[in-house]
Amino acid sequence: MPGRKRLTQQTLSLPSAPRTVTPQDRDGTANHFSDSLHFFNDPSIRHLTSSQKKTNQWRRWSEDVIPSLVVPYLSYMQETSMLRYADTVRQPHGDPVACHAGCGTRSIKVACVFFDSLSEINIIACPCYPAPLQLLRRGLFPCAPVAPSLAVDLRVLEFVRLLFIRQSPNHTAWCDAVETFLDGMGYKLTSMHSLRRRFANALHWYRVLNVFAREHISILIADTRKDKIRVQPMAVEQPTEYLRSRCPLCFGANDWQKAKDSRSMPDIIVCVDACFTQKRSTNARGADGHDPPNPTPSFFLPKDDVQAMEEFVQRCRGERRRARASRTEPEEDRYEKGMSVPVSVLDGCGESFTAADEKREKASTRFFTDTGLMALLCRHDRVLWIANLTSAGEKQHYSLALLDRLFKHLPPQMTVGLLYDIGCQLERSCRKWSLLDESILSRLTFAVAVFHAYGHQWPCQLIYHPRKCEGFGLSDGEGCERLWSSLKQLIPPLRVSGFNQRLFVLDTQIRHLDARSLQGFGHWLHRHWIHCQTKKNAALDNLQDLDLDEDMLRAEWKAQIAHQTRPAPRQSRNKAAEVITTLLALEKTLDAHDASVRELEARLHGGHVDNVVELNLQLVDARSRRTKVTNTIRHRRAALGVEDKAELEKMKRDVYLTARLNARAVKTRIWDRLRQRKFELERLERSYRASINTEKLHANTQHSIKRREPGILKLVSTYNGLCSQIQSLIRQRRAPPFAIPPHSIPRDGIFQLDVDDNIWQDIGLDDATVNPPAWLSDEAVRNGIRSQLEVDRCLEEEARLMRERSVMQEWMLTEWEGIQGALTNAGSDVVLAFHLASRADELVNICVAWRRKVQCVPCAWSVDRWGPSDEILLRATHEQVQPSFRDEDDQSVGPVGEDDEGDSDYGEIGDDELMDAIEDIALVDEYRYDIDPDDDLDDIEDDFMPSSPTRCPTR
Fewest beta carbons within 10 Å, which of 254, 312, 714, 902? Predict the structure, then answer.
C-alpha cells in the first residue's frame, strides 16, 4: 500500500574473520560464552540448544554489555537533560562508518520503535564499537547484546518502566497496543510476536542498566562519606552501610547511642510475617532449573543461607529431642526456661492459631515451586530483607534466617524489638531448642502483632501484646501486611514467571516503594506525633478524673500479671474435683447441642428453607458434635468412683456453682467464635487478597461472618442472663463469701473489641477469692491500669519519634555533605557533576517536604542545620508550591460562573507559616473524621490514614 513501510527481520552478514574454535569450546568445559550467531559453513561448530543460547546471551548482557554502557548512558542522560531534549534517531551522514582497526565487522539492519513511528537504520558493528553502544548514543536501546534486530527509544522504555511499577506489568497488552497504534499510521512489523519478545528483552535490560547507573552515583556519594568518616572515626560501632541505606530513621544516626532513653526500649523495632499469595507455579512441562540470575543487588536472602539455617534448626531439634526422650514430662504446669508464660498458655496459643488461622491454607508444593514470601521490615515499613518460601508452611527457619542476617549487620550492643504474629511461639522454640545464641536472645524482645493479638490467650497478651509490653510504644507490627497490599498487582504475572525474573520484579517494586516512602517520612512523623499526643492527652484526662496514685496502679498491674500468668495448679492435687467440674461443663455443652439440633430439625420440617442442602449439612454436623460430647460424658462418668458420683450430684444442686460453670462455658464459646471471626475478617481487611481468583473466597467468607453474627449475639444474651443470675445469688447470700460477680458483655460493641475489654478476662468466673485484690474487684483501678499503660506507651512513642526527628535531620545533613564532597571530587567531569547535581535536587525537594511537616515534632537533641542553605530551600519551596496551587489545565475548562468559586488569587499566598497552619488544621480534621480518640492506631483504615510513610490519599 502507498506510504506503508514493511520492516522484517534481516539476515545479518557474516563476519570476515570467524573465531577459531578449540576442543574445549566444543565440549563446553572452558568457554563461558558461545556466540549467538552460527556459522553454518564451519562443520566443526555444533548447534546450541535454546537454553544454551539464552544463558550465553544473559551472560553477555550481565558481564559485558551492561557494565560497559553505564558511563555512556549517564553521558547521554546528561546531554539530553534526562531525555528532555532527546531527538529522534540521529542518522549519520553518508554511509555507515567502517572500523579502521582491522576488527571483524558486520552490517546490522535495526528496526527502531518510537512513540509515533517505526524506522530502520543500518549500523556497522565491531568489537571496538559494538552495536549496543552505537544505538545508545542514538538514544536507542537494543534487544540483543551482539546483533540486535530491534531497538527501542529510551523515552518509550522509561515511560513503560515507570508505568509497570505503578500497575501490573503486561508486556503482551502494551506491545499489542503499540503495534495496533503504529499499524494505523502505516507502520507494520510482519513477523509474529516479534515486538513482544524483543521489546520485553530490551525493557528488562534497560531496567537493569537504570539500576546500575543509579547505584554508580550512590556508590560515589557513599565513598565520599566513608572517606570523611575515616578522617573522623566514630567511637561507637555503627550499623552497616546497607542498613543505613534501607531506613534513614532507624539507622541514619551518626551515633546510635546518642541521647539513648533510660527506659527499657529496644533501639530498633522490626516486624516479620509471611505471605502465601505471592506464589510461583511449577513449570507445566516439568522443566528443571532456573532462568539466569540478574546482576542487580537484591533484597532476597541467598538460597544457601536459608538452607543452612533449615539444616541447623533440624539438627538442633534432633539433638534436643534425643536428650529429652528419656525424661518424663511432669504433670503440673510450669514455666519453661527463660519464658514468662506457662506451658499451658503457650500450648493454648499454638492450638488457637492451628485451629483458626487462615494460614493453614498453605500453597501446595505439588503445584507451586515457590510458595510465598517472608519479609523483615522496620517500623517505618521499609524492607530490610526478604526470604523466598519453598515449603508448604510458615517454617521457623525462614524468620530465623532473616533475624540472623539482621544481627550480622548490627553493632554488638544494639537491641531489637521483634513483632511477629506468633512471637510467643518463636521465642519458645528459640529457648527450648537453642536456635539463637544467648548473645542474640539477650538483645531481642519478642511481641505479637496487634491484629493477631486476639488469637492469643489472655495471659500471653499480658506479656507479648505491644500495648502492654514495655518499649514498643504505638508500633503495630503490621508493616508486612501493608507491604503485601502494595505488591498485590504483581500476583498474576509473577505466578508464571521465571525464578530469578520474579525476584527481579519484586526488587524493582520495593525500590519504587522506597522512593515513595522516603518522600513521605516527614508526613509519617507528623501524623504519628499528632496521634500519639491525642491518645496521651485522653489517657491523662482519664487518670486525672480517677485521681488514683500512680505507684498503686503500677503495683496492682504487677500483681495482676503475676496472678494471671502463674502456672495452673497441679492436676493430681484434686483430680476428682476437676473431673466433676469438667462433667458439669460438658453436660451444659450437651444441652446447648441438643437445643441446636432441635432448632435445625424444626426449620427443616417447617419447609421454609432457602438452601436445604446447606441446612442438612449443618444438621449432620450438629448431630455429630452432640454424639461426640455424649460419648465423652459416658466415658468420664464410668471412670468416677462411688464418692465422686455422690459429689457430682451434690454439686449439681448448687445453684451458684451451676450458674458460674454455665457462664464460663458460654464465655469460652464466645471467645472461640470471636477469634474465628477475627481470622475470617482478615481475609476481607487485607486488600492484597482482593484478586479475581479469590472473589469467591471473599463471598463465602463474608457469608460465613454474617451467618455467625446472630449466633454470637445469642450467646452474649445467654451469658448476660447468667451474669444477672449470679449477681442475684450474691445479693441473696447464696454464694460463697467475697464472691465477685462477672461483668456482662455489651451487645453493641461485641464486634469492635479493644485489647483491654473485660471479655478477655475471667473476672468472677474463677474460684472465689477471700479479700480479692483491687485489680480484680475495683472497676476504677482496672480502668486506671489501662489508662496508665496507655500513657506509658505514648511516652515511649513520643521519645522514639523525637529521636527519629533528630536522626532525620542528621541523615539529611550527612547526605548533603556527601553529595557536595562528591561534586568537589568530580572536578571537570561534567557528566558526574550533572548527575550529582540532580541527586542534590532530589535531596533538596525531600528536605523541603520533611522540614515543613516536622515543625511540630521536637528534637531529642539539637542539630545545627538541615544541609542545604536557606536560599536553596526557599527556591525549592517556591518550585514545589507553584504547581500545587495553580493548575493551568483547570483554566481551560471554561469561564468561572457567578455561582462558582474563583481561585485566581489563591496561588498568590506566600505566607509559609499560614500554609503550615492550614495543613496542620486539615490534618487534625482528618484524624477527627470518624475516629474515636480511644481507638488504637491499628483500628484506623488504611485508606483513611495510611501507616506506611506515603502521602495521604485525597478525599
Answer: 902
